[in-house]
Amino acid sequence: MYGDSISLSVGEITDNITPLSTLEIKVVVNDVIITKESVRTKGNSASYSAKYQIPFGPYMPDNAPVEVYISSINVEGNHTDEIISTAKVRRPQIPQLYLVPVAGGGSTKLSLTDAANYIYSASNLNLANEITFYLATKITRFGNVDWTGMVFGSANGELAEIQEGGDGITLSDLTLIGYKEINVDLFNYVVTGVGDPLTPATSMDITTFGSVDINSTDHLNVTTAATWKKAVIYLGKDTEMTVTGVSNFSKAFTPDFFEVTGANTVKFLGETGVYTVYYLPSADYVYVEQPNAVFPDVLWLDGVGFGRPQTPLAKTSSWNWNSPLEYAFCRKVSAGVFQTTIYVEHVIDETAAEPWRLRFSAKFFHQRGWGGEVDAREYTINSDLFVAPTDADLGNFNGTANLVSVPGVYRITIDTNLKTLSFVKVN
Q: Which of 175, 191, 345, 361 is the most exposed place for a label (fewest CB within 10 A)?
C-alpha cells in the first residue's frame, strides 16, 4: 500500500579481481523516482539491506509495479546492473473525504463521484469565497479531523498528505459570491471550487469601510501616521455607482479610474475585478489599486516630486511603498499601454541638504515594490519637460529645467509596445 515500505536485501556482491566502490539504488513507481541512494562498498564483496517508503502522492496509479534499479560499480568504473520488480503497490481505499474548516464550524462530506479518476465532489454548498480547510478520511463524532486517518493539507503550496499541525488548503476567489461546489482530484492532486460570480458593485458607502492606520513618508523624509478607510470591492468596467461618504464629490476620485457622472455617481473606468479602495479622510480623496496586480495587467509609478491631482496640490511621493500617497497605480488603457494622472512639481535647488528630494524623478515598476522595472533609457519622450536620463540615473524618468516653471497636473501615458512616453499637462 502507498505509505508502506518495501524491504530490499542484497545478499552478496562480489568482484574477485577488482575492489568494489559503490552500490547505486533507485526505487521507481510509474516512471517517478521515489528515492535513490549511493552506498559505499569496499573490498571484493559486500551485502546490503534497507527499507524504502513508498509515499502516496500525485500521479500514483493503482496496482503499479515497484521497480528497484541496482547498479554495483567497482573502482575501475565497471558496473553490473539489475532491475528487481517483484512488488506492486496499491492505492488506499478512500470511499469519501471530509472537508473540515481549519477554524472549525462543521464538516462537509465529499463523495467519490468518479472512481476511475479518483474524483470526489460535494455540491449545494454555501461556503464563503475564501476558505481554509483540511481533507480528512476520518472525522470524530463532533465533526473534527480524526488524525488517525489520512489527512490532506498543503505543503510548499501544494496538496499533500500531512500530519497533525500541518497547513490547511486555501481556496480563494473574491470574484465569487461563495463556493457552492468543491471537487478534489486525488490522482492529479488538484482541488477546485465552483461558485456564482459576483456582479459589480453599483453602490459604495465609504462610511461602512473599515479603518486602518498607515504611516506615510513624504519627499522630505517626514513620516506621518493617518487613519484611512479601506474596503475590498468587486468593481466593473463602465459600471456606474452611487457613492456616499465623501465631501467634495467632484474632486474626491482618482481620475484615471473614476469618471464623475452626477452629483453622487461615478463610472468605473478600470478593468472588471477585485480592487482595494482607500479613502483618506484628511484629504477627502479616494484611491484604488489591486495590491497583487503585476505587468502586463498594470504598471506602478514610484519616485519623488509628485502627488494626487487634487487641490490643494502637494507632493506626497518619496520612493517608498507604504501608502497610496507614495506611489501611483497606473490604469491599463489597452494592451501594453498605461496611464496615470498626477500632480508634478520639479524644483532644482543645489543648496538644499538633499537636492534630489525636491526634483521630479520616477520609475515605472512591474509590481508594487522593488524589482522588475521599465528602463527610461529605452523610451522616446514627446516633451522637453521630461528626459530619459544617463546611465548614472539607472533608468529613471527625470524632469528637465523647463519643468521647473510649469508645475501642475499631468497625464502620463506610457506605451511599452512602441517604447514611447506621453507627458501632457491637463491643469
A: 175
